[in-house]
Every structure is written in structure tokens, then in C-alpha cells.
């Protein structure tokens, strides 16, 4: 009986730990916590409505909003944003915090330890937060590096956005998420445990990622631009493998998002019940029907397409020949893809693939979304209420209301008139703490 009690206790602790990883709890508010009054000239509290409120005061106790009052009120700790435009902290649904593209990227992969990558990620996490992004989904990094960084931010040891992390991507052997382009003995050392072949092995990979701490499962359903292999951009997993991945992830309470360029991989993943597509370069009319039938999300990552096309065409191109060919093929097509998806009624969540482009520049995605046909309000919705729904954190992010975490940003101008105002954030508060105040 004593042994049984120990086993049950261990199981309860493990379940509690898994739940904590998936849905970080917001600290309880108590009367003893300090109160801050944020006086706001213009307030887009709920981007879903598009309604701009004027002359309001956000009453913040500890890390939560407890009230939104009319007029400029409060004494004691007051933050004066009466001349600013305030909106919820932004959400980037696709980043890679532990690295950044450069001529040294391939060398970094074999010289940096997981600890080094976590430290690099801490620098980029602060930069991302200062740019106004209070929540991100990190979709592809060393398990040890990104889970340590996520947990350090959660504890308050490191300044950064709330991180929803996938850790290593689930990929086929030799696929986009595997190591490519090195000596064979090096490849075996670099290949992560999330690489799989066959339905049973792919279920193992998913379960391993969940056990390791993944909040979300990221897979590479097709080839990718920056993998150093001339394997194209088409489907890489079989239909049976995709079905096994999605089913096993869903059974363990995790949603699945797929890196996918080729239309065959996009459609096969959506038919398997996948939750969202990253990139979506070659989607077609059938894809749009499947998106809507399965209530799935598209994360277009237009900055990534723009960036790789520019680098590949420049005199200072540092991509390998295989990467260059794919960048020139896919990059220029992504803006039109997003335009067609938006016109076809596909739900779009904001995501940049930052780490391909430079950290801190995330807000440049807004202008590209507007070029693709979204209104400034729709672009903002994609990075607030839309991204929150996509990531299943609508009770934690995306709007400003009593009971919600005090995650908010401010700009000087009106982003509903000029969405590039979001590239010039002047104030950032996350969980009631001010991180930037210009």
C-alpha cells in the first residue's frame, strides 16, 4: 500500500506539472498587491470590436486589470499615457528565439551548446518584448534551450514575452526538421529524437515531445527553404504518419501546427485534422475549403518570405545553393498566397518566423499583411484576439478587460490609420510590470 501511495503521488505531481506547462496560471490578485493607474487617451481594449475608447483609466492590481474607469483617475502610482494610443500586448505565433539567420548560422549549429542557445534566446526575448510582443509561440528550437528559457521567463528570472514552446520539430529522417548538409557522422549526432519514420515511430516522437515539455507540437509536413538539401518543398510525411501524429497529439491535449509550403502537404495535413499551417505558400482552392471545414488557422509568415527572397537575390547572399534555389522559388509567392487566403475567408493568425529575419523587427509583418489585403484593424486582430484564439489563450491574452493579465503597449499615432505605428512602440507593460517607457 505504501508503494502504491508513492506511485499515485508521483502520478499526480507529473500530471500537475504537465498541466502547468500547457496553461501557465495567472497569479492570484490580493488586496496587498500594489495598484497602478494607467491613464489612457485612446484605448483599443477589445480589438474584436474595433471600438476605440477615449479618456479611460486602467486600474491594475498586481499583474491583473481589475477595472476600466471613465476619465483620468487615481493617485499614487500613475502612468500617464493620455497622449498615446493603447492596445493589448501583441502576439507573434511563430518565432525562433534561440537563433537568428546570419552567415554563421550553419557553424552556430555545431558550436553552440544548449546553454549558449538559451542565453542567446534571453537576449532576443528581451528585444521581442521591447518591440511590443508580450506573447510568442516558439516553433522550433533545442528542447533544453527553449524550455529552460520559457520557464525562466515564467518565473521572472529573465525578461521576455510569455513563451508557448514546441521544442524540436517532429520531422521525417532527412526532412526539413532533420540535420542536413554535414558529414554523416555529424548528422547522427545532430539529429534530434523527434525525427521519425512510420506511424508508430511518429507517435513515439510526439509523445516524447510532450514528455519533454512541449506546449504545442510543431511538425514539418513539407520540405523547407532553409534546410540545406535539394529535396524540394512538397509533402514529406505520408498520410498515415500525419494521421498518427495528429491523433496522438490531440489525445495528449496538444494542438498540432505544420510547417507546410507544398499544396500536397498542406491539404494532407488539414485532412488529417491538423490545427494550423505555418507559411502555406502553395495553398489552393481545395486548401481554403479544408481550412474552413476543419476550422484551422493560417500563419502566413510574410516577413520570412520577403527576407529569404531578398537575401537570395543580393550580392551578399549567404545561403547555400540548395537554400538559394528554394528561397527564390517560394519567397516571392507568399504575399499573393496571403491575399488569396484572406479573400477566401481563411482565418489568419499573426506570425513572422522571426529568427529567419531579425528579432525585434516583428511588427514589420503588419504592413505586409495590409499589402495582402487586410485592413489595419484586421491585421491588429490577427496579432491579438485572433492569435489568442489560435493558441487557445483567449483568457490570458489578446484583449484588455477586468480579470485579464495587464499586458499592454502604447504608440504615439493611430495604428488603425497607419499600421506601421506598431513598429514604433514607446511603452510596454507585461503582467503589470513596465518594461519600456520612452
Total helices: the number is 15
How is the main sheet built?
7 strands, mixed
Backbone shape = globular
Given as residue ranges, the uncertain stretches (5+ residues, pLDDT < 50) are 1-31
- CA-CA gap between termini: 62 Å
> What portion of the residues fall into strands of 2 or more residues?
15-25%
Derived structural class = alpha/beta
Task: Specify Rg, calculated over alpha carbons.
Answer: 22 Å
The strand order across the widest sheet is: 3-2-1-4-15-16-17
**Helical amount among residues, as a percent range?**
25-40%
Mean pLDDT: 91
How many strand units?
17
Describe this structure in words.
With 438 residues, this protein is of the alpha/beta class. Helix content is 37%, strand content 20%. It has helices spanning 2-22, 105-111, 114-130, 143-155, 184-190, 199-212, 239-251, 263-271, 285-293, 302-313, 321-330, 334-343, 364-371, 376-382, 385-390; strands spanning 35-43, 53-61, 64-70, 77-88, 90-95, 133-138, 162-165, 171-172, 195-196, 217-220, 256-260, 276-279, 297-299, 347-348, 408-411, 427-430, 433-437. A 7-stranded mixed β-sheet has the order 3-2-1-4-15-16-17, with no helix packed on it. It has a 5-stranded parallel β-sheet with strand order 10-11-12-13-14. α8 (263-271) links the parallel β11 (256-260) and β12. α3 crosses α4 (143-155) and α6 (199-212) packs parallel to α7 (239-251). The longest helix has 21 residues, at 2-22. The protein starts with a helix and ends with a strand. Mean pLDDT is 91; it is low at 1-31.
Amino acid at each position: 500500500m505504501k508503494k502504491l501511495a508513492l506511485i499515485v503521488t508521483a502520478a499526480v505531481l507529473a500530471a500537475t506539472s504537465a498541466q502547468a506547462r500547457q496553461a501557465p496560471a495567472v497569479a492570484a490578485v490580493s488586496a496587498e498587491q500594489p495598484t497602478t493607474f494607467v491613464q489612457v487617451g485612446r484605448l483599443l481594449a477589445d480589438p474584436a470590436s474595433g471600438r476605440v475608447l477615449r479618456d479611460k483609466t486602467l486600474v491594475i492590481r498586481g499583474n491583473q486589470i481589475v477595472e476600466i474607469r471613465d476619465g483620468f483617475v487615481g493617485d499614487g502610482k500613475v502612468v500617464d499615457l493620455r497622449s498615446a494610443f493603447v492596445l493589448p500586448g501583441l502576439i507573434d505565433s511563430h518565432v525562433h528565439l534561440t537563433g537568428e539567420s546570419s552567415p554563421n548560422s550553419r557553424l552556430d549549429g555545431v558550436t553552440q551548446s544548449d546553454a549558449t542557445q538559451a542565453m542567446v534566446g534571453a537576449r532576443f526575448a528581451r528585444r521581442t518584448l521591447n518591440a511590443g510582443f508580450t506573447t510568442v509561440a516558439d516553433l522550433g528550437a533545442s528542447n533544453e534551450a527553449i524550455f529552460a528559457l520559457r520557464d525562466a521567463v515564467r518565473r521572472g528570472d529573465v525578461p521576455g514575452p510569455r513563451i508557448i514552446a514546441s521544442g524540436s520539430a517532429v520531422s521525417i529522417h532527412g526532412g526539413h526538421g532533420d540535420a542536413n548538409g554535414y558529414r554523416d557522422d555529424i548528422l547522427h549526432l545532430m539529429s534530434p529524437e523527434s525525427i521519425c519514420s512510420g506511424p508508430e515511430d511518429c507517435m513515439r516522437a510526439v509523445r516524447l515531445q510532450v514528455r519533454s515539455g512541449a506546449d504545442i507540437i510543431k511538425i514539418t509536413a513539407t520540405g523547407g527553404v532553409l534546410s540545406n538539401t535539394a529535396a524540394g518543398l512538397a509533402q514529406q510525411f505520408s498520410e498515415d504518419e500525419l494521421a498518427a501524429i495528429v491523433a496522438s497529439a490531440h489525445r495528449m491535449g496538444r494542438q498540432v501546427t505544420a510547417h507546410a509550403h507544398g499544396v500536397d502537404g498542406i491539404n494532407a495535413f488539414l485532412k488529417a485534422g491538423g490545427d494550423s499551417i505555418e507559411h502555406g505558400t502553395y495553398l489552393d482552392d481545395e486548401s481554403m475549403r479544408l481550412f474552413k471545414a476543419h476550422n484551422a488557422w493560417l500563419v502566413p509568415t510574410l516577413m520570412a518570405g520577403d527576407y529569404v527572397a531578398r537575401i537570395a537575390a543580393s550580392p551578399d547572399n549567404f545561403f547555400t545553393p540548395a537554400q538559394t534555389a528554394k528561397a527564390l522559388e517560394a519567397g516571392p509567392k507568399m504575399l499573393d498566397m496571403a491575399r488569396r487566403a484572406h479573400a477566401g475567408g481563411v482565418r489568419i493568425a499573426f506570425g513572422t518566423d522571426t529568427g529567419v529575419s531579425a528579432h525585434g523587427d516583428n511588427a514589420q509583418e503588419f504592413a505586409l499583411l495590409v499589402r495582402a489585403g487586410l485592413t489595419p484593424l484586421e491585421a491588429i486582430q490577427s496579432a491579438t484576439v485572433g492569435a489568442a484564439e489560435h493558441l487557445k489563450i483567449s483568457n490570458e491574452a489578446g484583449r484588455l478587460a477586468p480579470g485579464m493579465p495587464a499586458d499592454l503597449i502604447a504608440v504615439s499615432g493611430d495604428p488603425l490609420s497607419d499600421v506601421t505605428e506598431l513598429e514604433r512602440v514607446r511603452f510596454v507593460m507585461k503582467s503589470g510590470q513596465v518594461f519600456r517607457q520612452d
